[in-house]
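Sharing in case it's useful to others searching the archive later.

Someone asked me privately for the predicted structure of NISCH protein, so I'm posting the question and my answer publicly. Question first, with the sequence:
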Amino acid sequence: YPSEFLVQKITEDNQIPVHLHVSVSLQYVAGLKGSALVEFFHGNIAEVENEELRHLMWSSVLFYKTPNVEVMACVLLSTKAIYFLLDDSFVHADEHQSDFWNKENSDCENSSFHLSCCFVLKLNDLQSVNVGLFDQYFRITGHSADHIVTCLTRDSYNTHTFIQQLMAVLSLLARTPSPEPVDKDFYSEFGSKNTGKMENYELIHSSRVKFIYPNEEEIGDLAFLVAEKMDGLTNLPSLNILLYVLAFQVNHVEGSAPNTSSLQPKTLILTSSDLFLFDEDYISYPLPEFAKEPPKRDKYQLADGRRIRDLDRVLMGYQPYPQALTFVFDDVQDQDLMHNLTLDHFGE
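And my answer, the predicted C-alpha cells:
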C-alpha cells in the first residue's frame, strides 16, 4: 500500500499532454485517480504480486526496431520493471512489426473492448541509460534490439524526475557486487588511448547500470555540423548554439476539418545568426554494442534553415502549454542580395 503522498503524486502526474491525441483505452487510464490507479496497476499490469508502483509519466516513445513510429505511452516504473502502456494504434501502424508484437488479441478489434499493448522492460535486464542533450530525452537499453526504448519527454524536469526515481528503484535490486575498481588516473579513466577522443561522461550505478551523459564535445560536433549546413557563410569560432529543443512542426492537413493539423517531431536549434529545424535520430545513437553496422541515416538531417535577419515577426499562441510559435520570414529567395548586386556591377 503506497503512502498518501505517493498516491497523490502519481495522480497529479497522470495527465496526457494537451497537444497529443491518444486512444480510448489510454484515455481511460488517464481518467483514473488515487487508489483506483494503484488498483488498476496491480490488477492489469503488474507481473509480480509484491511489486510497488513508484512513478508514472506520460511520454512519446520510440522503439529501436521501429525508429520512424513515435507513439504516446503511459510509462509506469515499479520496483521490478518499467512498463510502457502503448496506444493500440501502434500495433497496426507498421506491417513489419508482426514479429515484434504478438497479435493474439486481434479478434477483439471490432468489439467494445479497448485493447492496449504493454511493453515490459525488467530492471534486471537494464544495461544503460543514455541522457540526451539538455535532458530533452533519454534512451533505455536492455540486452537486445527489442529492449531499446527512447522516451521523448521534451522536458528536462520530467527527464530528471524519472532518472532520479529509476536510480532509487535500482538501488533496491540485489545484484552481485562488481569487482573492486583499480585506481586510474584522469586520462585513462575518461580518454581512449587509441583515438585520443574524450568519452561521454559515465556514471556507473551500484546496480551496475550505466548512466551516460553527453559531454561538451557533443555540442562542439553539433555546432560544426550546423556550420557545415550554412555553406561556410559564418565563422565557426563565433558560432554559438543558444538553444536546443525538441519540438513539433505544425503541418495543416489539407482537405480536412479546420483546426486539425499533424505534428511532425523536429529538433529546433537556434544560433546567433540562424534558426534550424533538423530531423534527428533519437534512438540509434550512440550505437548499441550489438549493432553490426551503422544506422541507415545520419543523426541530424537538415529539414529547414532560415537567417534571423530575415525574420519578420513572431506570432505567439496564448493557448495552454505548450505554446505555439509562428515564425514569419521575409520571402527573399536569394541568401545575400547586396553581395550579388556588387558582383554584377563591378564584373568578376
